[in-house]
Amino acid sequence: MYKKQTFDVEEQIISVPVGAVRLEGELVIPEQAEGIVVIPGIESNIKHGYSLRYLAHLLRQAGLATILIPLLTEEEEILDQRSKYFRCNIRHLATRLVVITDWLTENPITCNLKIGYFGASAGGGAALLAAAERPTKVRAVVSRSGYTDLIGSALSCLQVPTLLIVGREDYPIIAMNEDAIAQIPAHDKQLEVISGASHKFQEPGMLEEAARLANQWFNRYFKLAKLTAMCL
């Protein structure tokens, strides 16, 4: 395990056992962080996926801890590049995200942090499904351009505060997420359609806007969770 300590942030390359495989991720905990955002990727190498790495950087600037971790092994990613099988298997991805969540709650350095998810595309679908399966552990979930059509009836079980973010130019995903928000029974839910953004949010300023909305959402519900715990 690689570990680096600076004056205000702790960084670790961690390895999470998931069944017969291990998934390697990048864990960064700013000093005084009260919550951690799990950012699942599809690429097996966490150095890939610029948009998710940049998002993690922006969330950490706001004081949130992050764990950027792939949900596929290198071998699975190679197969997926040809068949798209794994990225369309939301249940497979969500099951691994649930295991990562349980690992965070048991790890001494993360067990006291409130947990949130930020997923994009297939990772967004996996985040919603995993949040439905861990309602007492996950405090908030954000999905950007999420494949909500692959989740099925599990949306009707989602009680976690949920923010869906889509780009105004991403017409098919807008329709999917409009249908999804109507199915989610969570009391706190919101759909944000960002003008000028396409599916990958690669236009200038669009990733920053998604990060701003996500940061507000996580901080709101992490603080509510802290206040609730103090009153118990």
Automatic annotation (TrEMBL):
Pfam families named in the record: PETase (PF12740)
Signal peptide annotation: none
Keyword set, alphabetical order: Hydrolase
Source taxon at top rank: Bacteria
Gene Ontology MF, one: hydrolase activity
Domain called PET hydrolase/cutinase-like: residue spans: 32-222
InterPro entries, alphabetized: AB_hydrolase_fold, PET_hydrolase/cutinase-like
Keyword Hydrolase among record annotations: yes
UniProt key word Zinc-finger: no
Protein name: Dienelactone hydrolase family protein
Organism (species): Cyanomargarita calcarea GSE-NOS-MK-12-04C
